[in-house]
Amino acid sequence: MSVLIKNGRIVTGSEDFIGDIFIEGDHIQGIGKNLDRKADTVINAKGMLVMPGGIDPHVHLEMPFMGTFSSDTYETGTRAALFGGTTMVIDFILQKQGNSLQAAYDEWQGRASGTAVGDYGFHMAVTDFNEHTKEEIAHMIELGITSFKTFMAYKGALMIDDGQMVRLMQEVKRAGGIVTAHATNGDMIDTLIAKHRSEGNLSPWYHYMSQPEITESEASGRFADMASYTGVPAYIVHMTCEGALNAVRNSTRRNQTVFVETCIQYLLLDASLYKQNFDGAKWVMSPPLREPKDQTALWAGINQGLVQVVGTDHCPFKWEQKLMGKDDFSKIPNGHPAIEHRMELLFSEGVNKGKISHNKYVDVTSTNAAKIFGMFPRKGSLSIGADADIVILDPKEKHTLSVNTHHMNVDYSGYEGWKLTGKIKTVLQRGKVVIDNDMCFAARGDGQFIKRNKVKGQL
Ligand code: URP
Ligand code: ZN
Ligand code: ZN
What is the pTM of this model? Predict the structure, then answer.
């Protein structure tokens, strides 16, 4: 099968020109002006943006968490991602404390393999670092899992202490991987949760009050310090606030690089949503939404190159599941749905409103994640030989987000009624048209597990 995309505005992290792309099989075989190639399918992309398929490196599909499972399966979640222009996701395997990494890998692949519609990879969340785990790190890297996630919160379930963190970092550095962190101070948060509960303050607002900015800035600085000491490549997931960003900014003064991911919700939504009684549960996530001044800092951080990635932390729960916490905010499953909307939201609110350039958009939605996590230039790139993962976006088309039209397996939208400018029209995954005009042509099991390479800790 061959495809010729003609006369599109081709945008990458560094280029922006009108041209054609020729695809044969899974790969891009030609890029240029007026390409004279015969193809089975010709797509007229005049007036459209043609960009690398999105990579969302932070999603939780079918994840066991807080007594339930996140509601999107690998099938529904990756299909929704494709509708929104995200052709690859990186999900999180969670080691069970007391068990091996291999057991967790087998369990997660059991759910994803043969069911995912879009391409996927895994981070390995190390929740119990011991002598046995240490021996498994190099093997995980051979399996193509080159990033190791740590939780500095959720004590008793996922959190590791600083001693385990340092030993994990030393081993991951030796083996050629990267350590990532949910960087918040778990002990402080647990103390605040207990205080609010004992005072009878049980609404979603107190979820926000239990995780003040300092819990994130302190842990981000501590994580950066431990990464500096061990020399391991480091990445902070879902950063929300100015204080945490300043902790990373500080680390640059000793010539350290700490990669930073924020998520679309932290750029666009703020903590005032928690004031709406229990409806605020839709946005109960950790860390919580913050203040307008934090949004300003994060947008600036993107333009300053301090924030390299915009993900989603997609972790959807149906309303019935959110109701598990109707009498106690600490029992509301943490997470919100966004996998489908990241690319269009960031385009509409970021590029179309002049906050970021087209090139920056491609970097933060695709290319940087591919580079940081060992997939470039196979993924995240429009270049000869790259996987033909391509998004064709109409920059002018207007549309409205709603639970009635989204494809995620969740019965509300965190963005109900948002009017966006810029719509994903066509998506190719490894050379095949998988989305066209709101229809999906990819099937259950079409998604491939992408083995990732060792990482360099550089862009
Ligand atoms: O609220 C969130 N973020 N839920 C998913 C788990 C995590 O901490 O990333
Ligand atoms: Zn987290
Ligand atoms: Zn997460």
Answer: 0.98
